[in-house]
């Protein structure tokens, strides 16, 4: 075998190896992409991503559930044009924080979706989205719908407020009754009936 033939055979073998390595790398990239998409789509929380123009690039099923809008409705569109409430509530500042390379957290944030009529409260965590070189190429948001929890907290606060008012009123009634010299049994009647001061003194 001549030197020329040896070089040709060697070159051919290297070409086969290079092609196989290239296919393996592409397969690895595809598997990683599919795994990442599976994680995003399987999350119950909303996951979104946006570019430097605040145009949505990722919109998972969790976001579809929260807003009632599909990925087709929002991908490629500017966030603040679709959802005006983002600017009205100051949520837009968190987008810019993420694009500046910083993490931002929003708690108990109100939202209204005019297109679907859905609304409530959410909490969000925004962070920069970087490429392999560490360059910020966009932002990532993880959104959790806390509407039910927020409403339950409000109902609890309202209940506690009413209870405090009732106790203050009852305390005032007992104080007036005692100063009027009423018997304990009548004091109980006064508190239960919610009698005002003038009526207590008259009893």
* SSE arrangement, N to C: HEEHHHHHEEEHHH
For the record, give the distance between the C-alpha atoms at the N and C termini, rounded to a whole number.
127 Å
Rough outline: elongated
Number of helices in the DSSP assignment:
9
Main sheet? 5 strands, antiparallel
Mean pLDDT, nearest integer?
Answer: 80
Question: What strand line-up does the widest sheet have?
Answer: 2-1-5-4-3
Helix share bin: 55-70%
Question: Structural class of the secondary structure composition?
Answer: alpha+beta
Using DSSP, what is the number of strands?
5
Rounded radius of gyration (Å): 33 Å
Which strand-content bin applies to the residues? 15-25%
Present the secondary structure layout.
Elements: H1 3-42, E1 46-50, E2 56-59, H2 61-67, H3 71-74, H4 79-82, H5 85-88, H6 92-99, E3 104-113, E4 118-130, E5 136-145, H7 147-179, H8 184-193, H9 197-202
Antiparallel strand pairs: 1-2, 1-5, 3-4, 4-5
Explain this structure:
Strand 3 (104-113) and strand 4 form a beta hairpin. Mean pLDDT is 80; it is low at 185-193. This protein has helices at residues 3-42, 61-67, 71-74, 79-82, 85-88, 92-99, 147-179, 184-193, 197-202, and strands at 46-50, 56-59, 104-113, 118-130, 136-145. Helix content is 57%, strand content 21%. The termini are far apart. It contains 9 helices and 5 strands. By secondary structure, the chain is an alpha+beta fold. The protein has a 5-stranded antiparallel β-sheet with strand order 2-1-5-4-3, sandwiched between helices. The longest helix has 40 residues, at 3-42.
């Amino acid at each position: 075998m001549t030197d020329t033939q040896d070089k040709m055979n060697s070159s051919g073998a290297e070409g086969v190896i290079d092609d196989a390595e290239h296919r393996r790398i592409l397969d690895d990239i595809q598997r990683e992409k599919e795994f990442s998409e599976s994680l995003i789509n399987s999350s119950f929380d909303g996951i979104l991503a946006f570019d430097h123009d605040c145009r949505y690039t990722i919109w998972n099923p969790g976001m579809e559930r929260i807003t009632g809008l599909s990925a087709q409705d929002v991908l490629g569109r500017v966030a603040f044009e679709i959802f005006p409430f983002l600017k009205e509530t100051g949520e837009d500042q968190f987008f810019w924080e993420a694009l500046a390379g910083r993490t931002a957290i929003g708690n108990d944030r109100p939202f209204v979706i005019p297109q679907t009529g859905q609304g409530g409260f959410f909490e969000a965590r925004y962070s920069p989205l970087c490429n392999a070189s560490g360059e910020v190429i966009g932002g990532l948001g993880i959104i959790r719908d806390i509407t039910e929890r927020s409403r339950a907290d409000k109902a609890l606060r309202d209940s506690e407020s009413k209870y405090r008012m009732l106790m203050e009123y009852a305390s005032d009634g007992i104080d007036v009754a005692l100063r009027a010299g009423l018997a304990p049994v009548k004091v109980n009647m006064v508190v239960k009936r919610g009698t005002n001061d003038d009526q207590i003194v008259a009893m």
